[in-house]
Amino acid sequence: MKEMNVEIVPQIELGKVYETLSHPESGGICVFVGTVREFTKGEQVVSLEFEAYEQMALKEMQKIADTASEKWKLDRVLLQHAVGVKSVAEPVVVVGASSAHREACFAACRFLIDTLKEKVPIWKKEFFKNKSVWVSAHP
Questions:
Q1: What is the C-alpha to C-alpha distance for residues 113 and 33, in angstroms, rounded to an integer?
Q2: What pairing do the DSSP bridges indicate for beta strands 132-135 and 28-35?
Q3: Based on CB atoms within 10 Å of each CB, which residue in 18, 111, 120, 134 is the most buried?
Q4: What is the pTM of this model?
Q5: How does DSSP classify residue 101?
């Protein structure tokens, strides 16, 4: 039975990701962690702020997890996105998959992050020293 974990969280806890994805039938676990980078387009970032339409975001994240599970033979799937203000180097999104073989894990993980960024209603505001800008990376 496939197990899926989709959440909007105040903070990403990377220490729990392995435990969530670990499965006795899985020979591989693949994880992608997105973090706040220090520079965007040559400007130094102070922090980022994320907002979500949580009910819709969770619904879309579940659809993405379901699609990945249908497309690849996965044992567990994880999608988490943080909301609130985040500092440089802080994790803001994590996706992962576990399966018997690495090919499925790698393919599913790329699909999970790419589709999350494309379809999930989460908005990002970048704070620089002298300005702030809403980024339209999400719908």
A1: 9
A2: unpaired
A3: 120
A4: 0.94
A5: S
* pLDDT cut 90: percent of the chain above it: 91
Question: What is the CB neighbour count within 10 angstroms for residue 12?
Answer: 21
The amino acid sitting at 6 is: V
Tell me the sheet residues that pair with 7: 80
CA distance 51 to 37: 18
39 in helix, strand or coil?
strand
Would 41 be classed as within a structural domain?
Answer: yes
Total domain count, the chain: 1
In a domain, 69, yes or no: yes
Q: Is residue 28 part of a domain?
A: yes
Would the CA dihedral through 100, 107, 117, 86 be positive or negative? positive
Give per-residue pLDDT as tens, 81-93: 999 999 999 999 9
